[in-house]
């Protein structure tokens, strides 16, 4: 037991004593017995409340050993021996110490009974998220404990509110309908309505009866139900059925059309059916048949008390008592001591290794001052060395922003270059030497409580990933988390000085920063003459026009110094006149000057909300300031669930750019997920799929734990999905080991039919789309696919008797994260086009990564690859790829009437235009006849997106793909309907017009496209590791050109693709010859 001297003041009843002087505080010596075995004595005012004592106690406990073993303060209550000689648990923390009168002035801290963990629940969550919850406790980290407490309160609060909701609201949560923002008929489906009416089919549960209706698109679900029941009553002579007892369900899906005032046309399901020229099919069923979960999440009697408590991370007490000093009062330069490094894996036992350390201060990826280096020294044979060297930076402590990162790289001096990041060192002209980076680490300057870090610290380093393309030695966009694998990571030892002596140094609150900015502004105005003030407020139309031109520039546009100066001078005019300039205005801020940081903070507090497209930009890596990111999240609060789902992939990845566990973005995503199970489903899988990544396993694991605790019924469904995926992955692994195809297929069928397997993969929500549920697998329809990783082609019976079978592909061994990003961007492009009335029949099929190199892909039925079509219609030969009639002939085989064929050609023309533009803008590479497919209805689409942003494959040093996009003679032949006359037919001109229009629409939203990719930088995708990778998008979108110039530029690329189509055909012929992969 660790303890101080227990006070010796128990000879009289001091609780009965009156203070000697009414003006002096009545101070007593209190002894607290902590749950980690530490005894903490300290003086305290006898009149304060228990919650105030607890806050002071946790502040004091941070100075004692084993502080990290404590959970957050609200997890505990005090107990004492009262005046009746009984042990009393003090749950009411508003009571005062002088009223409680603990015996011997001793309080014991015990865990609050109401929140003692349910071991079974903890175990289930640990299995589900892939990380035992005991690992979080074992970290003994106060930030982790604080975050777990806050998120538990958040989850409890949302879950309690869900329990109080009515039936309709519970259905909206569990089976959320996709609803468009407005009831306006989208331009792309106006022509699909018949005189403003929708034609749909309705069925009844457990009945073969079906009715067809032609109803106004403004009809609401209750009105349709009433019409259905009236028709049923007239047809089947039924009586007494009340519309309020029924609801409408999408056929084959667990999605319900609910809303008394929402017209049918506003439901995305109806819009999707009309866009695809499919008749909507709805099922009328009783509300009692809807499987609404009873959300009996927990029974926590203390929840109201808990929500009134403050977490121990509050710095209110420190600020209130004056035990701190503001960081903005420190004019000393920033310094720290580099002690040494140990366990460096560099083969020092067998050779001489000379190493050095470089350190830099960064904010949002930008350097705050010149980086510093230690002297270079020899590593000991055990992989350790000592510097004991002080590094001094050319920046004052007060000018280091709150979200600054201190970045390190450990490098070796060598005679040879090793790896892509090597640098030539100019030291001795007689000998060529290189700097070869070995490992890196980052840390924050301030802790999660806004306190400047002091004392000793050990950072466990990371090695450089081989596929990172970034050229910089330091890695400021890397994680600030220490490597959790401490047994195999080099340990860097540092010591930070205590600038505050006996006071802690706190970064100012936003309120204090705004006050400081106001003071600076008043002082500045006092120095200016009246004429100067008038001149500052008088802005000409020419200057405003310059600002508007800057607003149209893309997010990556580098501002010139004069532009920065002008914009910063006119910052208040930007606020009033052009608020969308905020992101660029923030680029003008000198983040290494606390005065400008204060002014930027004051501006942010006044800034009007931005549209979603502009708010997303503020969440990429470049905008580190906490007030900026808080503002961005505030702008997102009004976004619809449908739009949030569209951008969820980026928002989940943006969590990696946060410095601390607790942040508004995490809270925002959790709240939305806990209020919409569909969002919760995809957020779960986005985070769960990366739990093997050490840099994010704690952050993502904690968020997943919070989600599971706040949505325990959904957790059960996710648990079934996880078990199903584990079983299928195991089957896939076993199948891969069998070389013979027939033996592998038989083995697959034998394993799947085993009872333990059948149980695990039956009655499961589809991870690809949770609105679909399957009953059991249809083994006779399943097969093994031919590619190297042997994906499983799986077919399941739909749980809805009226629903069609569910087809999907399980991939094990391929990284699907880049496919997910590309398909998401195709969905966004499709939405942008449709908003402009341009429906290009895109087919961004479902794709989800569920684990490291494991995931699922939606099967697009009735489709074939171009390669197989060419082989089928042109026979397998070197010239098959050149025969332009094969694709049209294939379409004729599946569309027998002239009307059907014309419709198929129209589908092909539109979809070909969409994919031509999309693949060109996104730089989708490795296009060949096996990853371009065509449906029997004519719809063309691309699959397999392993290379994007212009990372084209090379062979013998030459690029295999030398055209902007795929437009072969075969495609042109279909677009022209087989016409062979000279010159382009009218049909082809329409196709080109579609392409140009689609390109210009994307240019109008170029900022959004760039921002979404920027949010993914340095999140683990090899082809998106630095800002340089975004240059491809800037080049294709040519955002610096006028619209006329951009259209002319695109036409030149279009002509290039058309003229060089023979090169694509040649490439495909080569591919067809080398790989006969006709599926069977």
TrEMBL record:
Could you tell me which CDD domains the record lists for this protein?
Answer: C2_PI3K_class_I_beta_delta, PI3Kc_I
UniProt domain PI3K/PI4K catalytic: residue ranges: 778-1062
| BP GO terms, sorted | bleb assembly; cell migration; phosphatidylinositol 3-kinase/protein kinase B signal transduction; phosphatidylinositol-mediated signaling; regulation of chemotaxis
A single GO molecular-function term is: ATP binding
All copies of domain PIK helical, residue ranges: 533-710
Question: In this protein, which residues make up the domain named PI3K-RBD?
Answer: 195-286
Q: What is this protein called?
A: phosphatidylinositol 3-kinase
Q: Which family does the similarity line name?
A: Belongs to the PI3/PI4-kinase family.
Q: Which residues form the PI3K-ABD domain?
A: 24-113
**Top-level enzyme category:** transferase
Q: What is the protein's species of origin?
A: Acromyrmex echinatior (Panamanian leafcutter ant)
One CC-aspect GO term = plasma membrane
Cross-referenced InterPro entries, in alphabetical order?
ARM-type_fold, C2_domain_sf, Kinase-like_dom_sf, PI3/4_kinase, PI3/4_kinase_cat_dom, PI3/4_kinase_cat_sf, PI3/4_kinase_CS, PI3K-type_C2_dom
Tell me which EC number(s) this protein carries. Answer: 2.7.1.137
- Name one matching Pfam family: PI3K_C2
All residue ranges annotated as the C2 PI3K-type domain in the record: 330-497
Kindly state which reaction or reactions the protein catalyses.
a 1,2-diacyl-sn-glycero-3-phospho-(1D-myo-inositol) + ATP = a 1,2-diacyl-sn-glycero-3-phospho-(1D-myo-inositol-3-phosphate) + ADP + H(+)
């Amino acid at each position: 037991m660790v303890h101080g001297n227990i006070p010796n003041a128990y000879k009289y009843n001091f609780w009965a004593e009156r203070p000697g002087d009414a003006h002096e505080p009545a101070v007593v010596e209190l002894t607290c017995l902590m749950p980690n075995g530490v005894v903490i004595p300290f003086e305290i005012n006898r009149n304060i409340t228990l919650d105030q004592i607890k806050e002071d106690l946790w502040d004091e406990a941070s100075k004692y050993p084993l502080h990290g073993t404590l959970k957050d303060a609200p997890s505990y209550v005090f107990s004492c021996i009262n005046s009746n000689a009984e042990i009393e648990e003090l749950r009411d923390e508003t009571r005062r110490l002088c009223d409680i009168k603990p015996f011997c002035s001793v309080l014991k801290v015990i865990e609050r009974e109401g929140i003692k963990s349910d071991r079974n629940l903890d175990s289930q969550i640990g299995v589900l998220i892939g990380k035992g919850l005991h690992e979080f406790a074992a970290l003994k980290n106060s930030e982790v404990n604080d975050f777990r407490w806050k998120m538990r309160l958040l989850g409890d609060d949302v879950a309690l509110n869900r329990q109080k909701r009515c039936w309709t609201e519970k259905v909206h949560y569990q089976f959320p309908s996709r609803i468009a923002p407005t009831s306006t008929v989208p331009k792309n489906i106006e022509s699909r309505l018949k005189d403003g009416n929708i034609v749909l089919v309705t069925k009844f549960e457990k009945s073969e009866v079906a009715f067809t209706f032609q109803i106004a698109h403004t009809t609401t679900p209750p009105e349709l139900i009433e019409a259905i029941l009236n028709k049923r009553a007239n047809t089947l002579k039924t009586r007494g059925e009340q519309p309020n007892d029924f609801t409408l369900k999408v056929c084959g899906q667990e999605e319900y059309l609910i809303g008394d005032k929402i017209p049918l046309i506003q439901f995305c399901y109806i819009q999707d059916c009309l866009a695809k020229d499919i008749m909507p099919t709805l099922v009328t069923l009783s509300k009692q048949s809807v499987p609404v979960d009873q959300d009996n999440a927990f029974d926590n009697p203390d929840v109201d008390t808990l929500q009134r408590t403050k977490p121990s991370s509050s710095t209110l007490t420190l600020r209130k008592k004056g035990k701190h000093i503001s960081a903005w009062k420190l004019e000393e330069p920033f310094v720290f001591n580099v002690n040494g490094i140990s366990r460096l894996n560099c083969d020092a036992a067998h050779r001489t290794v000379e190493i050095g350390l470089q350190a830099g201060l960064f904010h949002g990826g930008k350097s705050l001052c010149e980086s510093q280096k230690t002297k270079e020294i020899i590593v000991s044979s055990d992989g350790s060395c000592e510097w004991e060297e002080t590094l001094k930076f050319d920046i004052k402590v007060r000018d280091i922003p709150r979200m600054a990162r201190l970045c390190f790289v450990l490098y070796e001096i060598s005679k040879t270059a090793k790896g892509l990041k090597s640098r030539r060192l100019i030291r001795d002209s007689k000998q060529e030497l290189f700097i070869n980076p070995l490992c890196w680490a980052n840390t924050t300057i301030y802790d999660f409580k806004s306190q400047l870090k002091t004392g000793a610290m050990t950072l466990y380093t990371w090695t450089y990933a081989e596929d990172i393309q970034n050229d910089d030695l330091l890695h400021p966009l890397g994680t600030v988390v220490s490597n959790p694998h401490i047994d195999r990571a080099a340990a860097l030892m540092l010591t930070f000085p205590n600038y505050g002596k006996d006071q802690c140094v706190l970064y100012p609150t936003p309120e204090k920063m705004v006050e400081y900015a106001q003071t600076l502004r008043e002082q500045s105005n006092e120095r200016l003459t009246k004429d100067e003030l008038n001149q500052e407020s008088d802005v000409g139309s020419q200057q405003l026009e310059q600002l508007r031109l800057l607003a149209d520039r893309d997010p990556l546009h580098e501002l010139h110094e004069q532009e920065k100066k002008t914009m910063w001078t006119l910052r208040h005019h930007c606020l009033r006149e052009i608020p969308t300039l905020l992101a660029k205005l923030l680029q003008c801020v000198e983040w290494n000057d606390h005065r400008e940081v204060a002014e930027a903070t004051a501006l942010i507090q006044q800034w009007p909300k931005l549209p979603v497209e502009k708010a997303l930009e503020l969440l990429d890596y470049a905008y580190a300031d906490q007030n900026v990111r808080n503002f961005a999240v505030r702008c997102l609060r009004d976004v619809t669930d449908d739009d949030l789902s569209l951008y969820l992939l980026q928002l989940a990845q943006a969590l990696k750019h946060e410095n601390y566990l607790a942040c508004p973005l995490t809270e925002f995503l959790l709240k939305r997920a806990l209020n919409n199970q569909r969002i919760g489903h995809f957020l779960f899988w986005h985070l769960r799929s990366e739990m093997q990544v050490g840099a994010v396993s704690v952050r993502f694991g904690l968020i997943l734990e919070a989600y599971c605790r706040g949505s325990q019924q959904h957790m059960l469904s996710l648990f079934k999905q996880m078990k199903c995926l584990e079983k299928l992955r195991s089957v896939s692994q076993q199948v891969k080991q069998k070389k013979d195809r027939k033996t592998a297929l038989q083995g697959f069928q034998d394993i799947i039919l085993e009872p333990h397997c059948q149980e695990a993969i039956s009655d499961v929500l589809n991870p690809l789309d949770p609105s679909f549920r399957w009953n059991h697998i249809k083994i006779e329809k399943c097969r093994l696919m031919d590619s190297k990783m042997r994906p499983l082609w799986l077919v399941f019976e739909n749980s809805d008797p009226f629903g069609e079978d569910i087809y999907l592909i399980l991939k094990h061994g391929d990284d699907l994260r880049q496919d997910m990003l590309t398909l998401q961007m195709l969905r966004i492009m499709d939405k942008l086009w449709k908003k402009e009335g341009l429906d290009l029949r895109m087919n961004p099929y479902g794709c989800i990564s569920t684990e490291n190199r494991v995931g699922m892909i939606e099967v697009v039925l009735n489709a074939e690859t171009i390669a197989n079509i060419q082989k089928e219609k042109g026979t397998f030969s070197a010239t098959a790829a050149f025969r332009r009639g094969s694709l049209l002939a294939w379409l004729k085989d599946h569309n027998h009437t002239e009307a059907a064929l014309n419709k198929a050609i129209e589908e092909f023309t539109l979809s070909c235009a969409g994919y031509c533009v999309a693949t060109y803008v996104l730089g989708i590479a490795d296009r060949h006849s096996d990853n371009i497919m065509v449906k029997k209805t004519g719809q063309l689409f691309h699959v397999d997106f392993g290379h994007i942003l212009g990372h084209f494959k090379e062979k013998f040093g030459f690029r295999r793909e030398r055209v902007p996009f795929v437009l072969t003679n075969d495609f042109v032949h279909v677009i022209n309907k087989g016409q062979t006359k000279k010159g382009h037919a009218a049909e082809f001109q329409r196709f080109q017009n579609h392409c140009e229009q689609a390109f210009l629409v994307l240019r109008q939203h170029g900022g959004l496209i760039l921002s979404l990719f920027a949010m993914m930088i340095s999140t683990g995708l090899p082809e998106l590791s630095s800002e340089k990778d975004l240059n491809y998008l800037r080049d294709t979108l040519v955002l610096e050109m006028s619209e006329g110039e951009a259209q002319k530029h695109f036409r030149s690329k279009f002509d290039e693709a058309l003229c060089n189509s023979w090169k694509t055909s040649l490439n495909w012929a080569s591919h067809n010859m080398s790989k006969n992969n006709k599926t069977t």
